Each structure stands twice: as structure tokens, then as C-alpha cells.
Recover the amino acids of this structure.
């Protein structure tokens, strides 16, 4: 049982507003959802190639209502990465925008059978016909580090989605009159959590695919009068540049931030702006492995606890452990952050063979983030145990980037800070540096300025040959 | 360098493009390189090159090579 099957009760509420200003009630929206998937068979895998459109949302909700398991794939994914995922998971169905190039060869060879169309998207049955088991708890699959080509997906259950959506709706106080405008891709867990929590409460979604630096976004904003939106740190950088403080946006009730740590300075600056405008700024913390959200900073504490990621969401709890895995009880001691709650996902999948697996985490997630807790119980992220960076909100595993470079014939080691990945090499040839930058920019989908090649005399290693990353800075 | 050359260089640096692509008709999201992150880099390059601060309205309207020339004329910068 998932809450999507119970949305009919919101009948006349507005569910979706499109970028063309069309409004669909829950009745009309759910009719389209069920109609789109009517000829699909339950408990099969669907590759849902999405952008932020009504077209994509209809397939998502339709699939969940019919117990078809969607894999959310951003339509801007690199073609080769898509093929890799396709081969690993052999989905029964693919739903994609008309003319989407990565499936052009499937269409040309007549190996896809078109089942249905909805606006600018087509639903296909593939020729995979691989019969494999999907565990009965499995609801949804999301990419974690899709950009590095890893086929690793997070397995989320119906209970995970229900629990997280209701907890979020609870602490944000979402009501049917609320309206969220999308500012991030819906394949991304943060955006999906906004969608889930708003539909749960019978609220409305403005399906926007424009960037906040486009005129079209602000036109749609003024016309649709949203009450909230969310943003990763980079979106807050853009808002600052756009002089958010001078904008007149009376419909906004609160805005949220997650997907990486906002610097203390930025948090303080936005606290001040939001306070003067009567908008609540709510800082949050989460991971795809916890469905979406694990912590939030209640806005009453935004000022007093600036720089904190807050407290556990309703239904969840945190602890800190030391290197020997003993629980830390004293305040202000750094340890690894551990989360417990009903939104901790089942585990990972590397291919379709893993989709029969059940719960491997049993409600406990060791986050890989290093944190401390103050005497009042508020948590602060201070670093990471695992080797990854957040690039514009997307998690990028540095070991996987090194693997990609090695495959291309470049022996490099990678480090850096969020939004700025550094590649260390002993090669001095600048043409090779250019090739590395071009390759990473194309493969990972971030501008070349996000990367920096640094020449070093030798790669620092310890006696056993392990790279000493701490010696790189 | 003429203003036109400076203007083109701002696109080359901001959008990480070959100079041959920088010409009339170039527009946001029509090419892969010009996304929202690159847009902010372009705005920074334009501001630094011509020593100006673009208004919010001009940042969100700066959606093509041609539109940019029109916007800069408001700042008394003639691209020719």
C-alpha cells in the first residue's frame, strides 16, 4: 500500500500547473496517470526518462499506482551512460521524450513496441523480455552517482517513500493550499521528495523545467504564485547574484536548502534577507540512501544555529560513533553520523539481479559524513569520511572519477572541494591537460571551470602504495 | 582589442567554446555548453571585461549573443 493509490480523495484540488499555465485537478491528473500505464503489466521495470514536465510526472505517479517500478533517469544523461544502465537492468518498458536520441537505434531496428503516448512522450515496450523478480517491497530506483557511469541504483521501498513524505509534510507544515515550483531535476531525490510530500497533502506542483537564471522561470513564478521552492548551494549562489533580496515575491512562504552544505556566511546572509521578507529559510540534510531527508533546522533556530544542519526529522534519530564504532555521548566531539529511521532505504543494486533483494540495512544508515552535536542537540557537518564531492548538488565519487580517467589512459589522482574537482597529474603536457578537462566536462556534464589540473612531481603514496590524499593540498 | 573582440572572448571563456561558435544566433540552451552554470560564468566574464554590474533583469535576459549586444548598449558599451 502506498499513498499514491489514495490520492483520489483530493479530487477537485489542483494537482499540477504546467509551464504553459494549464491546471489539472487531482481527478484529471490521476485519470491521465492511470490511462498512460493501462496496458503495462505490474511488477515490471520502467526506465522513466524525465524532465520537469507534466508528461514525466504522469508516468511517475501512474507507475507507482500500478506497482510498476520506475528507474528515474534525467533526460540530459550522456548516451553511453544510458546504454550502460539499459544493459545492466534490461527494463520491460521505456518512457522517453519523442525524438530522444539515446533510443534512436532501438527505434530504427524496430526492437521497441510503442504502447502509448502522452503529450510529448512515448511509452515503449522493449525487447528485453527478461523475466526477473522484483522484491515485493521495491517501489522506486534512483541513481546516486549516475554521472560517473556507475550503474549503482538506490532501492527505495513503498514504506520508505510514505514515511519520508509524511515526515517532511509534518515538519514543513504542508497544507493543500501550498504550491511548490520545481527548480531541480525530478530524477534527483531532493526534488522528488518535494513532489512526494506535496502530493501526499493534496497540494500543488508547478512543473518547471527552466533554470532560475532564465526569464521564463520568473515569468512562470509570477503567474503561478508558488509558496515554496528548494535549492542546492549553487542555486543559492545564483539567487545571490540575481539579488534575491531585492525581489518582490509575496507568494513565498518558505524556501528550503539541501544537497550540500551552505557556508555559514551564505546561511547568515539568506537568513537576514528571508527574515526581512517574512520568508522562512529551512536548512535540511539528506541522502538518496535515506529516501531523501534526514534532518532539518527549524526556522526559529535559523539565526541562533546558523551553520547547523539541525535535528533529526520526525520519526528519525541520529547518533555519532567514533573510529571503534562506540557511541559518542559528549557534546562537541566529532564522529561519524549514523541515522536510524523508517526512511532508510533497502540498499543498492548494481544490476537487475539485485532487484530481488530485500532490506539489507534494517533501518540504519552510516552516512559517511563526519559531524558533531552541540549541547542543545543540534548537529553540524564538519567533513566527509568517504571520498566524494558534491558538484552542484550531485554526488561525485572521486575514486570512480579516477577510474574513468584511467580507462581513458590518464594516470591521475583526484581531490578538491564541493563544486571544484582537482586532478593531480605528473604529466606536464598542456594538451593532455586540455584533453582531460574536455573529457571530464563531457562525461560528467559539468563545465570545465569546475575542474582544475594540477601538476605534481610525484603522486604521494605510503609504503603499501596507497595514495596519501591528505598530502595533496 | 576592440569591444567586439572582447565581447567574443567573454563567450569563449565564460561558455568554454571555440571562437568559431561565437557569433550571431548563439543562444542559451541551444548548445550543450550554455547551461545555467556556464551562464553565471559568462555573466562574470562580461562584467569583468567591461567593468560593469548587470542588473537582475539583464542577467536573466542575456539569453543570446545578439540580446547581449542590445543589453550592453544600455550600459553605453557599443559592440561593433
Amino acid at each position: 500500500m502506498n499513498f499514491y493509490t489514495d490520492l483520489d480523495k483530493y479530487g477537485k484540488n489542483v494537482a499540477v500547473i504546467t509551464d504553459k499555465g494549464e491546471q489539472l485537478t487531482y481527478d484529471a491528473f490521476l485519470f491521465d496517470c492511470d490511462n498512460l500505464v493501462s496496458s503495462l503489466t505490474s511488477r515490471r521495470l520502467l526506465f522513466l526518462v524525465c524532465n520537469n514536465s507534466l508528461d514525466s510526472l504522469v508516468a511517475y505517479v501512474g507507475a507507482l499506482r500500478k506497482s510498476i517500478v520506475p528507474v528515474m533517469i534525467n533526460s540530459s544523461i550522456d548516451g553511453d551512460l544510458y546504454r550502460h544502465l539499459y544493459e545492466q537492468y534490461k527494463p520491460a518498458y521505456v518512457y522517453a521524450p519523442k525524438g530522444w536520441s539515446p533510443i534512436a537505434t532501438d527505434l530504427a531496428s524496430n526492437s521497441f513496441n510503442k504502447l502509448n503516448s502522452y503529450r510529448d512522450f512515448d511509452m515503449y515496450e522493449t525487447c528485453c523480455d527478461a523475466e526477473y523478480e522484483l522484491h515485493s517491497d521495491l517501489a522506486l530506483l534512483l541513481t546516486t552517482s549516475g554521472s560517473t557511469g556507475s550503474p549503482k541504483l538506490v532501492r527505495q521501498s513503498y514504506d520508505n517513500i510514505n514515511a519520508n513524505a509524511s515526515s517532511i509534510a509534518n515538519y514543513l507544515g504542508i497544507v493543500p493550499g501550498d504550491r511548490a515550483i520545481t527548480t531541480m531535476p525530478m530524477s534527483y531525490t531532493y526534488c522528488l521528495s518535494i513532489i512526494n510530500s506535496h502530493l501526499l497533502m493534496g497540494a500543488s506542483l508547478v512543473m518547471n523545467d527552466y533554470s532560475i537564471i532564465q526569464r521564463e522561470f520568473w515569468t512562470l513564478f509570477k503567474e503561478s504564485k508558488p509558496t515554496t521552492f528548494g535549492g542546492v548551494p549553487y542555486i543559492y549562489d545564483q539567487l545571490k547574484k540575481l539579488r534575491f533580496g531585492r525581489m518582490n515575491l509575496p507568494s513565498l512562504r518558505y524556501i528550503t536548502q539541501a544537497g550540500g552544505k551552505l557556508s555559514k556566511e551564505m546561511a547568515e546572509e539568506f537568513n537576514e534577507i528571508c527574515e526581512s521578507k517574512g520568508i522562512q529559510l529551512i536548512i535540511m540534510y539528506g541522502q538518496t540512501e535515506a529516501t531523501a531527508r534526514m534532518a532539518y533546522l527549524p526556522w526559529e533556530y535559523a539565526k541562533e544555529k546558523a551553520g547547523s544542519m539541525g535535528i533529526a526529522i520526525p520519526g528519525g534519530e541520529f547518533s555519532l560513533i567514533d573510529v571503534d564504532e562506540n557511541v559518542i555521548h559528549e557534546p562537541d566531539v566529532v564522529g561519524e553520523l549514523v541515522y536510524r529511521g523508517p526512511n532508510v532505504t533497502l540498499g543498492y543494486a548494481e544490476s537487475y539481479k539485485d532487484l530481488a533483494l530485500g532490506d539489507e540495512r534494517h533501518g540504519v544508515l552510516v552516512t559517511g559524513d563526519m559531524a558533531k552535536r552541540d549541547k542543545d542537540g543540534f548537529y553540524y557537518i564538519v567533513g566527509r569520511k568517504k571520498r566524494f564531492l558534491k558538484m552542484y548538488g550531485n554526488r561525485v565519487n572521486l575514486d570512480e572519477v579516477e577510474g574513468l580517467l584511467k580507462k581513458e589512459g590518464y594516470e591521475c589522482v583526484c581531490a578538491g572541494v564541493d563544486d571544484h574537482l582537482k586532478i593531480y597529474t605528473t604529466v606536464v603536457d598542456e594538451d593532455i591537460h586540455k584533453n582531460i578537462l574536455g573529457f571530464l566536462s563531457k562525461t560528467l556534464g559539468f563545465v570545465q571551470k569546475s575542474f582544475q589540473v594540477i601538476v605534481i612531481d610525484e603522486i604521494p603514496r605510503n609504503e603499501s602504495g596507497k595514495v596519501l590524499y591528505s598530502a595533496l593540498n | 582589442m576592440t569591444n567586439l573582440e572582447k565581447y567574443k572572448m567573454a563567450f569563449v571563456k565564460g561558455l568554454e567554446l571555440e571562437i568559431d561558435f561565437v557569433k550571431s544566433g548563439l543562444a542559451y540552451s541551444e548548445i550543450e555548453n550554455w547551461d545555467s552554470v556556464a551562464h553565471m560564468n559568462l555573466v562574470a566574464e562580461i562584467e569583468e571585461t567591461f567593468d560593469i554590474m548587470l542588473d537582475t533583469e539583464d542577467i536573466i535576459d542575456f539569453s543570446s549573443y545578439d540580446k547581449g549586444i542590445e543589453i550592453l548598449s544600455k550600459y553605453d558599451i557599443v559592440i561593433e
